[in-house]
Amino acid sequence: MHHVSSFRSRLVRAALGALAGLLAAYTALAVAELVAGPVRPSAGPVTAVGGAVIDRTPAAVKDFAIRTFGEDDKVVLRLGILTILAVAAVGLGLLAVSHRRAGAAGVLLFGVVGAAAALSRPDSSGAGDALPSIVGAVAGALALYVLAAAAASVPAPAGADGRAGPGAWSRRSFLTAAGVTAVAASSAGALGRYFTGRQGRGAVASREGLVLPEPASPAPAVPAGARLKVPGITAFTTPNRDFYRVDTALTVPRVDADTWRLRIHGAGVARSRTYTLSQLLARPLVERDITLTCVSNEVGGPYVGNARWLGVPLADLLEEAGVRPPSKGGRADQLVARSVDGMTLGSPVEDLMDGRDAMLAVGMNGEPLPFDHGFPVRMLVPGLYGYVSACKWIEDIELTTFDAYDPYWVKRGWARRAPVKTQVRIDTPRPFARPAAGTVTVAGVAWAQRRGITRVQIRVDDGPWRDADLAARAGVDTWRQWSYRWNAAPGGHDLTVRATDGTGRVQTEQRTRTVPDGASGRHSVFVTVP
Ligand SMILES: Nc1nc2c(c(=O)[nH]1)N[C@H]1C(S)=C(S)[C@@H](COP(=O)(O)O)O[C@H]1N2
Ligand SMILES: [Mo]
């Protein structure tokens, strides 16, 4: 009898301790959110730690995460962090029932980790970024201290060894304290989200109020024959909602276009300049269909899209600023674009000024850039992978050299220079499809930005290479659809494709990984014809 009650009372205390730990963690996060909200939402502990994890992820692991979780990788990361926090919170809660100070100190330690993460982020703006984690942790530690005291003094049933000291709290007092903590923390969290939301609403209003000017140079018409009507083929123009998204932002920056500025400065810039969005929009704009590709795209992968972009020609701005390409004696060979979230991307100045349609894009498929894709302004350079060119939420352009500065991805093992490799993808049939015997239309898209696609060939099993039918050519900077009518005989078959670019070069057979400068090799799909 005696042992059973003592065991039960210990169990109750443990449960209350665990609850105290979880509530303390909840309090810490909510208060941190309240502090971060009005200042800098990305300095909140979960976002900061998640960002710091992303920053430190080696190229290969980052690629693995993107491949495995797709664009849900950030949700997975966030859930992972919250899970670890919950487990730690329960642990600290149990500890705190017997060692109150140690438990509270543990919470403070987590605050230090969060603060360090926030300070280590590339977008950190100084010591203030440590505040959300520190203040949150102090609140969490206090909550744990008080709740653990209440949990520890819940009177044990008669005969148990846990003496209820003078002034001991009853179980009901614990529940009251817990309830008060929960309500206070929820209110803090809600207030924090309100502040964050208010900033976001300003940005949303500025985007909704933005009227894009007509382009001085409209996009050349896409020939009707450039869009094939094959079921399952990738659309020539990717709708914004379907456009792939790759970035390190755990919370998508919501930039207010009315207060946004772009600065251009650095080596060879006669006088540094700052532009508002209205100033950029007052310039002659170009509109172009351009295919954007991510270096993390596996052979046959989904991280490529084609949109109609509206933007300010970048070369004009650079020339006005006095910048010359290295081939004309310019001092800077690298342009480093920096975003509001601290991302840095470096592009060769020579490429930006060689006549291609490098631009500061403001429009995507007829609307202002979606927030996910860089509102209000992003860079876009045909022929270069996104990580060396396509800076979203851009706010600063610095002219420098490749010797002097390594941007974000280069520091993490990716190549300094990365022109897009020739690739072709089979969209239909899907891998392991079971098409009926007879005529099967095999189709997909091929891209080699700046060079264009002149030929796509397909091979069935070990047979000869046969020419696929190419859709009409829309331009060297866009992908090109293709199709092939295959007379499918029963059995298992490997379908392999290869493309030839405008220089006459056939895409290499050699398989490489995405790291450091993009995957090469040929896409093939296995199907079974029943
Ligand atoms: N600010 C910022 N810009 C960025 C990135 C980023 O992480 N942060 N990722 C780059 C990469 S790797 C690619 S492939 C493109 C993707 O652009 P999208 O998300 O609009 O498709 O954005 C580029 N611009
Ligand atoms: Mo990318």
Would you write up a description of this structure?
The chain has 530 residues and is of the alpha+beta class. The chain has 3 domains: 2-205, no CATH class; 237-412, Alpha-Beta Complex (Sulfite Oxidase, Chain A, domain 2), CATH 3.90.420.10; 423-529, Immunoglobulin-like (Sandwich). Helix content is 35%, strand content 21%. It has helices at 2-39, 45-56, 59-69, 73-98, 100-120, 131-152, 171-208, 277-281, 314-320, 349-352, 408-411; strands spanning 261-266, 273-276, 286-293, 304-313, 334-339, 344-348, 359-364, 367-368, 378-380, 394-400, 423-428, 438-447, 453-460, 466-467, 469-470, 480-488, 491-501, 524-529. The strands form 4 sheets. A 5-stranded mixed beta sheet has the order 2-1-10-5-6. Strands 3, 4, 7, 8 and 9 form a 5-stranded antiparallel beta sheet that branches. Strands 11-12-16-15 form a 4-stranded antiparallel beta sheet, with no helix packed on it. Strand 5 and strand 6 form a beta hairpin. Helix 1 (2-39) packs across helix 4, helix 2 packs across helix 5 and helix 4 crosses helix 6. The chain is globular, with a radius of gyration of 29 Å. The chain starts with a helix and ends with a strand. Ligand MTE is lined by residues 243-248, 292, 294, 339, 341, 343, 373, 386-387, 390-393.
Extract low-pLDDT stretches. Answer: 157-168
Number of helices: 11
**Broad structural category:** alpha+beta
Note the beta-strand portion: 15-25%
Quantity of strands, as a count: 18
Radius of gyration: 29 Å
Bound ions, cofactors and other small molecules, one mention each: ligand MTE, molybdenum atom
Mean pLDDT: 93
Give the biggest sheet: 5 strands, mixed
Number of structurally distinct domains: 3
- Following the backbone from N to C, one meets helices and strands in this order, namely HHHHHHHEEHEEHEEHEEEEHEEEEEEEE
> Which shape, going by the Cα principal axes?
globular
